[in-house]
Amino acid sequence: MTAPLRGRPGPVSGGLDLGPGPGTQVLRVAVVGSGPAGLYTAEALVKQTAQAAQAADGAAVRVTVDVLDRLPTPYGLVRYGVAPDHPSIRSIADYLRRVLEDPRVRFLGGLRLGGEVTREMLLSCYDAVVYATGAPLDRRLGVPGEELPGSAAAADFVRWYCGHPDADPGRFALDAVSVAVIGAGNVALDVARVLARPAADFGPTDVPDPVLAALAASRVREIHVISRRGPAEARFTTKELRELGGLPGVDIAVDASPGHLAGAFPGDAGASPGDGVRPPGADPADRRVRGNLAVVADWAARGPHGGGRRVCFRFWRRPVEVLGPGRVTALRLERTAPGAAGGAVGTGVYEVLPVQLVLRSVGYRSAPLAGVPFDERRAVVPNAEGRVLGADGRPRPGEYVAGWLKRGPSGVIGTNKADAAQTVRSLLADRLPGGAPPHHADPGAPPLAERLAARGVRPVTYAEWLGIDEREHRTAAALGRGERVKLSGWDALNTASGHPRSG
Ligand code: NAP
Fold it and tell me: Which of ligand 1's atoms lies nearest the C-alpha of 237?
């Protein structure tokens, strides 16, 4: 499908079809979403267009990229998803900042697709639109009691400790003694680690002050990580798993009853015949799987150190009911066993785990965008190498997708770089002679800013975001905490930006 991007000489500038007439020699692209997927897309647009121009003997091909976001703050999950005690991952924002500060790239905050802007508006103002709105929704367990007070999505907990303006700073009081975190992915590890780590460790981080106060007052003593499959099938990355074992004052326990860990560790005491055969879901040759198994085996062999908090991994169990009444008091679990095709099946053996807080960490889900095709089953925009496909299976001219909205919520932040580059290759290839019929902005359409102004809407500018950025640095200095302390709540963001928008 993808033609290689060549800057061969053609009837138009640099071989790229930028539309008729001398006034249209600039490729105007809107990217919706300023998280890693959106900003890596902006970066790839700038780089690949320059390469195409160079390959066509320096022809005057130019690109301008408007990066829209519903928030007044850029960086998406790097700012509001990465755990505060992972500063090296957070520092990806420094790299992305350089993309935003490229003169060909412009940040337009406070614009929600389906609200202040519509798909039709974007397609009339831009030659191409790239949707990169990620996966903002959480997946549900679908078990009774899930709605009880004390049961929440891990995504809500993450937004809370990251100071997302939609999260109420008082949302999590942490008065539970025992917490269940359901799921065996990296988000479950982030959540378990934030609950287990001494609050003092968060002083130098950017967590909002009310969050730091709640962590300091936390009564949490036990964190149970519940996995419906075994350690070999868990989706943790080994570095993040190992990190949990190095926390001061934290014991790690592994529920290693026979037929539970035994399948993952052939030769274990208590292993029954056949236990050494791993289900097809886990590849023993996978470095990550082997690494995870080694870490868990080490923990299983360790005794308690007498730490103040304990993280207990409970494998081969699935939640069947969150128990009340009134609010969460316990979780009913069913023991599971390896099933066909790597899945887990119920064994009919149940147990009740007393907990007062349940955080489901069973994956994220993308949200459909008004007027944009959406595959409800996979929760992605149907696409071929980033080209949005219509109901007829054909690419919709001028519409592209990148990141989690394109491929689902998988991979680490860096995965979005190659993903975005692929989408941009498709976008530019479609503008080569002989490519797919390219879309062109309506030549008579006023620029987006003018159309918005006519409706009384003014985007949040990059300079206004820098106002928030600066206030966060000053807050940290005033509190004697690290480099940055997040402002929490819409009012604080609006005051700091000086933009009159309300959340
Ligand atoms: P994830 O990696 O997809 O893990 C989801 C977990 O939930 C899996 O263990 C899954 O089990 C389990 N699950 C799904 N439905 C369930 C159900 N109904 N009942 C019980 N368990 C259920 O998702 P994630 O943790 O949200 O992470 C999303 C992405 O972000 C991942 O690619 C992750 O690596 C990345 N991330 C990276 C970092 C980092 O690098 N530090 C930090 C956070 C997130 P099954 O496997 O059995 O389906």
Answer: 34
For residue 410, give the ligand 1 atom closest to its CA.
32
Q: What is the mean pLDDT of residues 96-120?
A: 97
| Pairwise CA distance, residues 417 & 48, whole Å | 13
The set of protein residues with a Cβ atom below 6 angstroms from ligand 1 is: 89, 141, 182-188, 190, 227-229, 233-235, 237, 240, 318, 361-364, 409-412
Calculate how far, in angstroms, residue 311's C-alpha sits from the geometric centre of ligand 1.
18
Atom 42 in ligand 1: residue holding the nearest Cα: 186
CA angle, residues 200, 201, 204, in degrees to nearest 5: 95
Q: What is the mean pLDDT of residues 223-248?
A: 95
Residue nearest to atom 23 of ligand 1 (CA): 363
Q: Cα(315) to centroid of ligand 1, in Å?
A: 14
Residue 12: pLDDT over 90: no
pLDDT > 60? residue 241: yes
Residue 46 near residue 105 (C-beta atoms within 8 A): yes
Q: What is the pTM of this model?
A: 0.91
Work out whether strand 357-360 and strand 344-354 pair parallel, antiparallel, or are unpaired: unpaired
Longest dimension (CA), the chain: 78
The answer to whether 270 touches 262, Cβ cutoff 8 Å, is: yes
339, two tokens = 């099933």
Distance CA 109, CA 490 (A): 13
CA–centroid distance, residue 171 to ligand 1 (Å):
23
% residues pLDDT > 90 (the chain): 77
Q: Whose CA is nearest to atom 31 of ligand 1?
A: 410
Q: Which atom of ligand 1 is nearest to the CA of 411?
A: 32
| CA-CA-CA-CA torsion sign (444, 448, 449, 452) | positive
| Residue with CA nearest ligand 1 atom 38 | 186
Rg of the chain's alpha carbons, rounded to an integer? 25
Q: What is the pLDDT of residue 391?
A: 95
Distance between CA atoms of 90 and 92, rounded to whole angstroms? 5
Nearest CA to ligand 1 atom 9: 184
Contact (CB, 8 A) for 287 and 345: no
pLDDT of residue 59: 63
Cα separation, 288 vs 44, whole angstroms: 29
pLDDT band for 55, please (50, 70, 90 cuts).
Answer: confident
